[in-house]
Amino acid sequence: MLFWRVKPLDKILETAEKKSLKRQLGPIQLTLLGIGAVIGTGIFVLTAEAGQKAGPGMMLAFVIAAIVCALAALAYAELAAMVPVSGSAYTYTYGVLGEFIAWIVGWALGLEYGIGAATVCVGWSGYMNGLLSHADLFGLVQPGALALPEALRTGPFAGGTFNLLAFLIGLAVTVLLVIGTSKSARVNAVLVAIKIVALTMFIAIAFPSVQSTNFEPFLPGGWGSPTGGVGVLGAAASIFFAYVGFDAVSTAAEETKNPNRNIPIGLIGSLVICTIFYLLVGYSAAGSVGAQPMLSAAGVVLDPGSPEMAAACAGSQALVCSKEPLAHVLRLLGHPQLGNWIGAAAILALPSVILMMMFGQTRIFFTMSRDGLLPDVLSKVHPRFFTPHVITILTGAVVAICSAVFPVGKLADTSNSGTLLAFAMVSIGVLILRKQQPDRPRPFRTPMAWIVCPLAVVGCLLLFVNLSPFAKEFFVGWAIVGLVLYRLYGYHRSHLANGRA
């Protein structure tokens, strides 16, 4: 039986009841919160990836990913409102589906946050390398004089040897997390504004240059393939990463005025606005310079991040080959300095996303360690900095190494595999709890739950099967390691099993 060792929700809520938060957030604040959390790495980095998989049809991919996110968000919000404590989906499933499923979800969240952070590191390095290759420091040096050797710009899968800048930014954020440096609300607001201004500027310049011929053919990769990874659905599975972060709205349920009304407004409002932004960016990029995929000699769409793709892109100015797609588009349109400014905006804004993802990763495993499912040393707190330094250093090392070796697309797909599983489990948990505890107070109720939640599960499964083969294989390997670790350690050491919870 899967549903054993359920940690009672009342026990989980004991922590939250000690300190109650003031309900002060309205629909506008929630919508802005969601926009700030969502817009980031995906649109700045994965536009080229989506173009390689779906061509101009990537615009449909943005819509499909947004719909799946909206369905999952409505389910996520109900549990977040009922269990407003740390631990994310891991904590929710522990109180609904039991320890075994909670372990699976917590382990999967390691892919969402940890590999997600590595994805952002690679995206950041792409823009930084691009800026170093084109900047002249106001005429003080020749353009390209600051560029790193080609071998140090990307990992071995993408034609290089070691992505040095991705490795270094991963280590830098790890140090910040260990010493306890955190972002202030004002700094975060400035970074959000920078992202919005940068995307608006890109649309304003690229949109007028759109030519209808650049949209032909519109679906060069079709809707998908039996093995996944290409076509519109393959692009949607990758571009799903561009929407991760919307759960920041649902986790604010405890601080929201009239959550039954305002939570769905914030969730759907932020996703709609971000989708409009993404569609305009995708339309402007594909229509202005073209976004047709690179093909093999047999006319087959090449796998992004593969050695074959790297070879095909050697010396090419195609959008799908760029590591900094938005800046690259503006340079192709004859605006090199504005392209540099777009790159600078990404360079300034993306490290905060790395920090947030690594923070989430360390806190999930910290919570699992505190529950006895992982070794106690992982929840050890630094005597001076008061941070979980052991798990932070381990996480930082893995993030830095992965970002130095793997390409952005493979990392994004792998991160999405964990996210999709977690969202599916949360959606199932909502329905189970509706049956098991129908009278429990719900500050927010998922509308039409028996329609929305099954559709969310189906949507997550649809995107999962259309992930790249690499991501699915990595996910299976990660799951096997996790199950073995749980059976050998967590099953016996669990505090709940030993009466210590």
Instruction: Please give the share of residues in helix.
Output: 55-70%
* CATH fold description: Amino acid/polyamine transporter I
Class inferred from helices and paired strands: mainly alpha
Helix segment count?
Answer: 19
Domain module tally: 1
Backbone shape: globular
> Radius of gyration, Cα only, in angstroms?
22 Å
Measured distance between first and last alpha carbons: 21 Å
Mean pLDDT value: 85
Order of helices and strands: HHHHHHHHHHHHHHHHHHH
Low-confidence regions: none
Please, could you describe this protein's structure?
This protein is mainly alpha-helical and 501 residues long. It has helices at 9-18, 27-38, 41-45, 47-54, 58-82, 88-96, 99-134, 164-179, 185-206, 231-239, 247-250, 259-289, 307-313, 325-332, 336-370, 389-405, 408-436, 449-465, 469-493. The chain has a single domain (23-493), classed as Up-down Bundle (Amino acid/polyamine transporter I), CATH 1.20.1740.10. It is globular and about 65 Å long. It starts with 8 loop residues before the first helix and ends in an 8-residue tail after the last helix. The model has no long low-confidence stretch (mean pLDDT 85). Helix 2 runs parallel beside helix 12 (259-289), helix 5 crosses helix 10 (231-239) and helix 7 (99-134) packs across helix 16. Helix content is 65%, strand content 0%. It has 19 helices and no strands.
